[in-house]
Amino acid sequence: MIDVPVVMLNVKAYRESMGASGMELARACERVAESTGVSVAICPQQTELALICREVEIPVLAQHAEAFEAGAHTGYVVLEAVKEAGAAGTLVNHSEHRMTVADIEAVVSRAKELGLCTVVCTSSVATSRACAVFEPDFIAVEPPELIGTGIPVSKAEPEVVRRSVEAVKEISPGTRVLCGAGISTGEDVRAALELGAEGVLLASGVVKAERPEEVLLSLAKGAV
Ligand code: G3P
Description:
Largest sheet: 8 strands, parallel
Bound molecules: SN-glycerol-3-phosphate
Radius of gyration: 16 Å
Order of helices and strands: EHEHEHEHEHEHHEHEHH
Shape: globular
Number of strands: 8
CATH architecture: Alpha-Beta Barrel
CATH superfamily: Aldolase class I
Strand order of the largest sheet: 2-1-8-7-6-5-4-3
Distance between the termini: 19 Å
């Protein structure tokens, strides 16, 4: 349901991605997807999920969803609500929102039942291999020490990306591998694809940019 190569933007909880600014980022992603033909997906702030799903045609994913079913839980986002919002799927186990192994398995398997796509975030080759057994749609390997630094994983830790792709494909050939952390240019995207990744997951390089749409355009061109 999400074409590759994909540029996937996680807008996190930055001030620059709330409310109207979050909507503008989503529209910029859509314009770039339309003008380049490259798959661009967005993970809006949870409060904007349903609204952005209604407004844009590109894949929209939640930033997190709980393992438990809809019911008497307060202040949580469940998979059923993600689906109802119109989202394509959810990030799982992001470095800034870690989950237990049991919960990762539960979210991936319940998401499959609901027809939602999962992007499981991992920190290393070993954790990528471990999560591959759950056969998610995507694994996004992101060394935490590079997140938000502007130092691209595809250049600083190419072996982590290359070996994660190998490890994941051995266990779950259908799972696509993305890489993230420090990605901010088309060249970083190209380097990621050369290492066998099928896209990138990124945040600050776009959200904190003075002209986010220009950065998105350059990222998309790196994927062509
Ligand atoms: O989810 C994306 C991520 O954690 C990478 O963040 O700011 O280094 O692109 P950033």
